[in-house]
Protein 1
Amino acid sequence: MSPAEIEVAVISDIHGNRWALEAVLEDIDRRDIREIVSLGDSLYGPLAPAETADMLMGLDMPTVRGNEDRLVTEAKDETANAPTLSYVRGQLTQAHLEWLTGSERTAIAYKSFYLCHGSLDHDDEYMLCEVSEDGVRARDAETLMAMLRSIRQPVLLCGHDHVARTVRLPDGKLIVNPGSVGLPAYYDDVPYPHVMEAGTPEARYSIVRCGQAGWQVENVAVRYNWEAAATVARNNERADWAQWLQSGRASPGTPLGRIGMNGA
Ligand SMILES: [Mn+2]
């Protein structure tokens, strides 16, 4: 495949939302895009982890492992104080868990793409922004160029913060975060309390192409049945997830969860 012919759909952070995944895969298929890569955090959440795993296993695409995937595979039996984690573990078969364990933390795909879930070194650290006591702040170009110095591929694909964002660096590299297929907003308290939000409930993904004009990114937002997903979240005692799914917002002042997204 020469660079001029590359067209790849990038999906990330599905979080067991099979309704959103189904809609995104249909959209990708409708556009006749054949190549898909996935950036991890595929199954964790109070939704439909087993059905999501079945769909993903059938796709056989380059996939990296996210922090929540690691949490799911490394969880011990004593997860009583982590009801969502224990729900996910209870739904998954041995085959699902083996598939989840099979992904590496980083990968190279179609020669031009370097895949990671969070930052290059940590699956639970954001690439494009940093969180401090003062809030969430975008990393500047200098910092990002230094972080990517060892990467030879022209395009870095990353997820984890659930917000679609593309950064073109002065050295020519492109960083693409496709946003989240399955969870458009969340509150988390690690490393400091913060909110991430897409602002609308649609499922997000990106299409990355290389043609005569160089690398181009198209961000896509797909409508799907988020009420169905929210109902399942509510039935699994996660009113916080239900609210994030329905609104794409997790602002203070809206009914936030008792615990953060990573609070398991
Ligand atoms: Mn993550």
Protein 2
Amino acid sequence: MSDRYDVAGVEEKWQTYWESQGTYEVDEPGSRPKFYDLCMYPYPSGPIHMGHVRNYTLGDVICRYKTMQGYTVLSPMGWDSFGLPAENAAIRDGGHPGVITRERIEVMRSQIKRLGAVYDWRREVSSFDPGYYRWTQYLFLQLYGAGLAYRNNAMVNWCPSCQTTLANEQAETGECERCGTPVIRRALEQWFFGITKYAQELLDDLNALDWPERVKTMQRNWIGRSAGVEFDLQVVPLAGGGEPSDPIRVFTTRIDTVFGMTYAVIAPEHPLVTSLIAGVDNEAEITAFIQRVTNESEMDRLSSDGALDKRGIWTGRQVINPFTGAPVPLFLADYVLATYGTGAIMAVPGEDDRDFQFAQVHGLPVIETTERPEGWGKLPTLARGQGQF
Ligand SMILES: [Zn+2]
């Protein structure tokens, strides 16, 4: 036996044999248990790179392992062939994106085949093939018919020169990847899926997942809550008079703690903010804060663990707690999003951890609304409310 592995000879011989025998072709399984393995379909972006080799080898190892355990294994391969890379390549090199994409698929298919993985190539699909995307369209129409696909405003990355929205990856540097123009954030009508209608189910099932607590918290913040109460906060007029402001509607899942509200928070991109901050003492500082925050992605904002003094700013305004009649300061903070709930919240530092941290940093009062059982312990230190609001 040779002490060197003859890659070219051995691989080609067995791959030809597997293909001629249909070794990895899977039909309706008989008595064996089924195992389905889907590795994310590659984007046909050009010749494969080591990331593809790594990814599809890992999947192949699992498939072969499950086959040896007695499973009938179905491992399909296909192409995620719509979208930006084809569009960018067509703009850069000229030519029709469909033609470019087909050429790239040819190259990548021959390369991936040489990996010798257990794909059933008879089942190859391409997402840009009308025979495939008619089903995507069918599913969309089902969702639309059920009221689960709808139009709404959302903040997007926008290049004023290209007159187009940009993915976060195309706007990472703050400049348009195509033309270098500074990217702005603006509200634009977008399609949405009504996944928040399933927020409670998603939250409930999250509890059963064996994920790190930090990741679960991030998911909880991201999902939001469905069951709660909305009520209005009247805005205290500025000392110098001026136009009376519309009330601010807030959403809370903990209306039982409303007597502990010592401040409120409104999203920096909330439509009322511009009129609220007009003419307040620190208007320039607030405007700079809004500029910075609205250029960050929602995911970054929700998952940020940055210092809370940098993440919020007083609007210079006060609002009235309708349950006590007490005025409380109104803040802007990056972790409140205009697209969730009503885009504004009451804050109860006596009963919420993040509100408590925020209150400590900004010198806001803390009111406990529930009597702790004996031995429960006190809050570490109660802020005395040294801030000037
Ligand atoms: Zn541009």
